[in-house]
């Protein structure tokens, strides 16, 4: 097998975790996986046995330059790529692919989001190896997560014929947008669908050719972007996701998927953070020293003394300048708070 490189996409804002997440400290820099390590640091650490630091690249926002360096002190400076403006995942992956091609034209590449939780890192690495094997014989490969419920928050992958030579791997019949509940129940019952994990595997040359075919404007922009031209050229690149711009446009049968079951979570809300956290006998995830009286299934993050009495299923998050209180069942509505702050011009709280 050719040399494998990992690209970690770490430019997201994570507005669903306000007030802990801010523009200067987004979701991937928070310890939301039930421990003390940030999601970004955990992502890089769990693949270190598979790919060394010198072949691990992280693409993030320029405004997160110093914070990212603090999180990943072992990564070479030249492996940190800083975007001067957010342009979605296709420019991110296209740029990283060009950097890798310049170092190793025969490279295999694994692209991973920085803001996911994995309970079984060894299981992820085994699945990644299978996906990389598929990428050697197909134009692209991905990992699909075995669905455990009819979730409407994920995109789905319909699986097709088996791919010979790689255990459990199958061709992708199609990618499906987030469904309504009735359709999600049908997908779960059929046994043919997987959640789209957002992880991609490919030969660097194959991805570069796919971008030239499906996103020629992006390819032309990357052609004109040398190492000294990033600040000038990158903000003008088309803003488009790799899913819509490339992956979903590749001919059926040329994309493979490997099912994965390794304790995956996209950590999509404070509800997810509660699910992953350590809890007391009443289901409360509390900081040390917090008091809970007749209180159940609450999540609290605060450095102050906290006492809960007679409340259930709440999220309480306190920072130096803000406090969030809401039912866990409405965790997705945190975005409405961010939108309201924007409308009031309170950029100091974003």
Quick description:
With 350 residues, this protein is α/β, with parallel strands linked by helices.
What do you see in this structure?
- The chain is of the alpha/beta class and 350 residues long.
- It folds into 2 domains: 4-265, Spore Coat Polysaccharide Biosynthesis Protein SpsA, Chain A (Alpha-Beta Complex); 270-349, no CATH class.
- 28% of the residues lie in helices and 24% in strands.
- The strands form 4 sheets. Strands 6-9-7-8-10 form a 5-stranded mixed beta barrel. The chain has a 3-stranded mixed β-sheet with strand order 13-15-16, covered by helices on one side. A two-stranded antiparallel sheet has the order 5-11.
- Strand 15 (314-318) and strand 16 (323-327) form a beta hairpin.
- The mean pLDDT is 95.
Please give the structural blueprint.
Blueprint: E1 4-10, H1 39-46, E2 56-61, H2 65-71, E3 80-83, H3 89-103, E4 108-113, E5 117-118, H4 121-135, E6 140-145, E7 156-162, E8 170-176, H5 181-190, E9 193-203, H6 204-214, H7 216-223, H8 230-233, H9 242-245, E10 255-260, E11 264-265, H10 270-276, E12 291-293, E13 299-301, E14 307-309, E15 314-318, E16 323-327, H11 334-343
Parallel strand pairs: 1-2, 1-4, 2-3, 6-10, 12-14, 13-15
Antiparallel strand pairs: 4-9, 5-11, 6-9, 7-8, 7-9, 8-10, 15-16
Spell out the key features of this protein.
3-stranded mixed β-sheet, 5-stranded mixed beta barrel, Spore Coat Polysaccharide Biosynthesis Protein SpsA, Chain A, 350 residues, 16 strands, alpha/beta
């Amino acid at each position: 097998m050719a040399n494998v490189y990992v690209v970690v996409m770490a430019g997201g804002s994570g507005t669903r975790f306000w007030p802990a997440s801010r523009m200067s400290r987004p979701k991937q820099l928070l310890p939301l996986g039930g421990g003390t390590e940030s999601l970004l640091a955990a992502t890089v650490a769990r693949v270190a046995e598979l790919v060394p630091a010198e072949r691990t690249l992280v693409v993030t926002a320029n405004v997160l330059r110093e914070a990212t360096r603090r999180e990943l002190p072992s990564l070479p400076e030249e492996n940190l790529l800083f975007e001067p403006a957010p342009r979605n995942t296709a420019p991110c992956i296209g740029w990283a692919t060009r950097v890798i091609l310049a170092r190793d034209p025969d490279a295999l590449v694994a692209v991973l989001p920085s803001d996911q939780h994995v309970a079984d890192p060894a299981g992820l690495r085994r699945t990644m190896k299978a996906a990389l094997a598929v990428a050697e014989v197909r134009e692209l490969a991905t990992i699909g997560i075995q669905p455990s419920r009819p979730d409407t928050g994920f995109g789905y992958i319909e699986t097709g014929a088996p791919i010979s030579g790689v255990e459990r791997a199958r061709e992708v019949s199609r990618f499906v947008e987030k469904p309504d509940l009735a359709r999600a129940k049908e997908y779960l019952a059929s046994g043919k669908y997987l959640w789209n994990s957002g992880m991609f595997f490919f030969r660097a040359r194959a991805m570069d050719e796919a971008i030239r075919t499906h996103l020629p404007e992006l390819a032309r922009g990357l052609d004109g972007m040398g190492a000294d031209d990033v600040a000038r050229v990158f903000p003008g690149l088309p803003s488009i996701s790799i899913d819509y711009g490339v992956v979903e446009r590749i001919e059926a049968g040329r994309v493979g998927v490997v099912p994965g079951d390794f304790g995956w979570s996209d950590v999509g809300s404070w509800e997810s953070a509660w699910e992953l956290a350590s809890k007391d006998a009443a289901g409360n995830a509390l900081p040390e020293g917090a008091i809970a009286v007749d209180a159940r299934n609450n999540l609290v993050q605060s450095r102050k003394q906290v006492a809960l009495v007679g409340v259930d299923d709440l999220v309480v998050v306190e920072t130096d300048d803000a406090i969030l209180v809401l039912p866990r069942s409405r965790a997705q509505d945190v975005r409405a708070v961010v939108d309201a702050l924007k409308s009031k011009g309170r950029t100091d709280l974003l």
